């Protein structure tokens, strides 16, 4: 029976935290979508992650979906909860991180939680309440130009303030000098912040060790919130739940809808090692069926070098976000046809893109397999026909440059 329930605001975020929990010794199931019964997925899992597509939804919808997920997790027996958002705090002045955390906290009748997006292995650290991406403050990183959630400040308190109902009074900071003194000091600081009336306590973390301290200090909180790395400090009952992935033979297809800088490098690298096809919105509008059929045909004939179907041509490519649904629909349709043709492993790049592809594939709960880069692993689910389907769902900014080539090696 699962005891830990996670509400994740997108699909790649859900697999990211499932990897962390699995490494920490939790048998973890990822349940996909809103309203999908948790059912058997919880029976032999210690943790259940509900993957929503709520990051950029209207605030009311995101809150409603998160509360509905909370009720499902409580119904499945979960007693402790975790709201997983992006390690780059992807949100707008309206939300959705603040409103979702506040609604879940209130539904649980709890008085305080922590705000911990840091993911040091991927370069996301928090110091003096400011979020860094590698060497840059968040607002000087490529996230400044994100089409949907441009991050124009690095102060987590300032970002959160307009998102929570009581504003600045609701937010406190536990700075790194306190974290460096260990779990006791952090526990006391969080308790003090709570007595002073704050419900959301931003906690600095520049290393995995800081996050382990934070996890140890917050064992009495029923709700944690953050990126995935804090979850590495939550010990589960098993040494490790990872099931090593053995990929079937067949084409090595990458479906990339991600416009992120890391993905751009990975696409270029994979094109140099294999081949691929650019999916242009104009071509899809002119002949959707022909474009999709051509991509499927070329992918099936590509042999065992990676074949990349990609939406964005270059890092400085100007993206018209109005074309996103068309591209998502095309990539999802290509995925469905490939699986129907017998393809049993697919690598999908991009959070929104992964949500669209997996939604159309109708895949059931996902289990964590081999981790290939921090936060990126092969997942195992069941295709619509009942057969195994291996999926790697990659966050836009995760993974080294050779990921689209390396992902298939050593596990085939
Ligand atoms: N050339 C393009 N024109 C318009 N939209 C695009 C283009 N390339 C990608 N997109 C869209 O941008 C979005 C990227 O989001 P996502 O898949 O979450 O990637 P990431 O994880 O990198 O943010 C998707 O909806 C995708 O369809
Ligand atoms: O925490 C993270 O950075 C990831 O788990 C994540 O949520 C990334 O989102 P996308 O870049 O939109 O895939």
TrEMBL record:
<keyword id="KW-0547">Nucleotide-binding</keyword>
<dbReference type="InterPro" id="IPR010737">
    <property type="entry name" value="4-carb_acid_sugar_kinase_N"/>
</dbReference>
<feature type="domain" description="Four-carbon acid sugar kinase nucleotide binding">
    <location>
        <begin position="253"/>
        <end position="404"/>
    </location>
</feature>
<keyword id="KW-0808">Transferase</keyword>
<dbReference type="GO" id="GO:0005524">
    <property type="term" value="F:ATP binding"/>
</dbReference>
<comment type="function">
    <text>Catalyzes the ATP-dependent phosphorylation of 3-oxo-tetronate to 3-oxo-tetronate 4-phosphate.</text>
</comment>
<dbReference type="Pfam" id="PF07005">
    <property type="entry name" value="SBD_N"/>
</dbReference>
<feature type="domain" description="Four-carbon acid sugar kinase N-terminal">
    <location>
        <begin position="4"/>
        <end position="234"/>
    </location>
</feature>
<keyword id="KW-0067">ATP-binding</keyword>
<dbReference type="InterPro" id="IPR042213">
    <property type="entry name" value="NBD_C_sf"/>
</dbReference>
<protein>
    <recommendedName>
        <fullName>3-oxo-tetronate kinase</fullName>
        <ecNumber>2.7.1.217</ecNumber>
    </recommendedName>
</protein>
<dbReference type="GO" id="GO:0016301">
    <property type="term" value="F:kinase activity"/>
</dbReference>
<keyword id="KW-0119">Carbohydrate metabolism</keyword>
<dbReference type="InterPro" id="IPR031475">
    <property type="entry name" value="NBD_C"/>
</dbReference>
<keyword id="KW-0418">Kinase</keyword>
<comment type="similarity">
    <text>Belongs to the four-carbon acid sugar kinase family.</text>
</comment>
<dbReference type="Pfam" id="PF17042">
    <property type="entry name" value="NBD_C"/>
</dbReference>
<dbReference type="InterPro" id="IPR037051">
    <property type="entry name" value="4-carb_acid_sugar_kinase_N_sf"/>
</dbReference>
<dbReference type="InterPro" id="IPR050007">
    <property type="entry name" value="OtnK"/>
</dbReference>
């Amino acid at each position: 029976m699962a005891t830990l329930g996670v509400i994740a605001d997108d699909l790649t975020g859900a697999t990211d935290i499932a990897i962390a929990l699995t490494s920490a010794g939790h048998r973890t199931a990822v349940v996909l979508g809103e309203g999908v019964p948790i059912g058997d997925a919880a029976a032999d899992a210690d943790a259940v992650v509900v993957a929503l597509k709520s990051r950029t939804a209207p605030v009311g919808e995101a809150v409603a979906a998160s509360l509905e997920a909370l009720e499902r997790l409580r119904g499945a027996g979960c007693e402790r909860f975790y709201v997983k958002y992006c390690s780059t705090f992807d949100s707008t002045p309206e939300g959705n991180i603040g409103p979702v955390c506040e609604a879940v906290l209130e539904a649980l009748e709890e008085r305080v939680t922590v705000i911990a997006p840091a993911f040091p292995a991927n370069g996301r650290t928090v110091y003096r309440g400011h979020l860094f991406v590698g060497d840059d403050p968040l607002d000087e990183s490529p996230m400044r130009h994100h089409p949907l959630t441009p991050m124009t400040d690095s102060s987590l308190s300032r970002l959160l303030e307009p998102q929570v109902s009581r504003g600045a009074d609701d937010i406190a900071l536990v700075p790194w000098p306190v974290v460096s003194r260990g779990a006791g000091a952090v526990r006391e600081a969080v308790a003090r912040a709570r007595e002073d009336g704050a419900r959301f306590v931003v906690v600095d973390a520049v290393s995995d060790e800081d996050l382990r301290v934070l996890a140890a200090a917050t064992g009495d909180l029923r709700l944690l919130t953050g990126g995935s790395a804090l979850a590495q400090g939550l010990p589960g009952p098993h040494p490790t739940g990872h099931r090593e992935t053995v990929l079937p033979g067949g084409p090595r297809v990458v479906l990339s809808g991600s416009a992120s800088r890391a993905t751009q490098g990975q696409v270029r690298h994979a094109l140099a090692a294999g081949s691929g096809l650019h999916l242009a919105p104009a071509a899809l509008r002119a002949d959707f069926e022909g474009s999709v059929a051509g991509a499927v045909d070329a992918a099936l004939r590509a042999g065992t070098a990676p074949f990349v179907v990609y939406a964005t041509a270059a890092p400085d490519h100007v993206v018209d976000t109005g074309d996103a649904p068309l591209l998502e629909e095309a990539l999802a349709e290509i995925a469905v046809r490939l699986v129907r043709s017998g393809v049993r492993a697919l690598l999908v790049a991009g959070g929104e893109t992964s949500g669209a592809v997996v939604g159309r594939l109708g895949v059931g709960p996902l289990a964590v397999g081999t981790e290939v880069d921090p936060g990126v692993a092969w997942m195992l689910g069941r295709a619509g026909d009942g057969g195994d389907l291996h999926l790697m769902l990659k966050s836009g900014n995760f993974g080294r440059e050779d990921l689209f080539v390396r992902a298939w090696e050593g596990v085939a």
